[in-house]
Amino acid sequence: MKTPIKLKVKPIRNGTVIDHITANRALSVLKILDLPNQKNTVTIAMNVLSSQMGSKDIVKIEGRELASKEVDKIALIAPYATINIIRDYKLVDKGKVHLMNKISGIFKCPNPNCITNTDEPVNTKFLVIEKKPVILRCYYCERIMEESEIEAQF
Ligand SMILES: Nc1ncnc2c1ncn2[C@@H]1O[C@H](COP(=O)(O)OP(=O)(O)OP(=O)(O)O)[C@@H](O)[C@H]1O
Ligand SMILES: [Mg+2]
Ligand SMILES: [Zn+2]
């Protein structure tokens, strides 16, 4: 008789667990954090069953705590994400991501005729119309941007 296989992910000692990421967005979260170019040990779970969300992704990063600017970017593509800080194996802080009302200079407006895409020295600016799911509107040309379009730019 075969023994059932039990896999257990090693707990992290110091670092960050990003939980409740919108399903299939874990790789975009890694990109936002530039993790493909770092040496941190990272554990990724995708399409995990979640009682709150149906399915979700989780990213666990050893040896890294996040800057608020990074958390702001994660909020744009994973508005339900929870940021858990682990120190000495213990969960010491848990917070929800939250989005600011205006987003400047992070991504381009998809409208080629927008003033921000001309030679004029105008920085992009989007107003946050809805937070869950995220919907942005270009301040200049009123072009609407949804999460999937935002994700495509990371
Ligand atoms: N030392 C650790 N190493 C790795 N992951 C951890 C560690 N401690 C907690 N976690 C993970 O951090 C997340 C939050 O832990 P917590 O115990 O608060 O779970 P929870 O009660 O399900 O949280 P929530 O209410 O936010 O869903 C979980 O995904 C958990 O697996
Ligand atoms: Mg939970
Ligand atoms: Zn625009």
Describe this structure in words.
The structure is a single chain. With 154 residues, the protein is of the alpha+beta class. It folds into two domains: 15-96, 2-Layer Sandwich (Alpha-Beta Plaits), CATH 3.30.70; 102-152, SH3 type barrels (Roll), CATH 2.30.30. It is 15% helix and 37% strand. The strands form two sheets. It has a five-stranded antiparallel beta sheet with strand order 2-3-1-4-5, with helices on one face. It has a four-stranded antiparallel beta sheet with strand order 6-7-8-9. Strand 4 and strand 5 (90-96) form a beta hairpin. The longest helix is centred in the middle third of the chain and has 10 residues, at 68-77. The protein is elongated, with a radius of gyration of 18 Å. The mean pLDDT is 94. Bound molecules: adenosine-5'-triphosphate (ATP), magnesium ion and zinc ion (ZN). Zinc ion is lined by residues 109, 111, 114, 116, 138, 140-141, 143.
Question: In short, what is this structure?
Answer:
Helix content is 15%, strand content 37%. The chain has 154 residues and is an alpha+beta fold. It folds into two domains: 15-96, Aspartate carbamoyltransferase regulatory subunit, N-terminal domain (Alpha-Beta Plaits, 2-Layer Sandwich), CATH 3.30.70; 102-152, Roll (SH3 type barrels), CATH 2.30.30.20.
Total strands: the figure is 9
CATH arch. level architecture of the largest domain: 2-Layer Sandwich
Estimate the global geometry from the Cα principal axes. elongated
Please name the fourth-level CATH homologous superfamily of the largest domain. Aspartate carbamoyltransferase regulatory subunit, N-terminal domain
Radius of gyration: 18 Å
Ends apart, CA distance between termini: 48 Å
Low confidence ranges: none
Strand content: 35-45%
How many separate structural domains?
Answer: 2
Overall average pLDDT: 94
CATH fold-level assignment of the largest domain: Alpha-Beta Plaits
- SSE run: EHEEHEEEEEEH
Oligomer: single chain
Percent of residues in helices comes to: 10-25%
Largest sheet composition: 5 strands, antiparallel
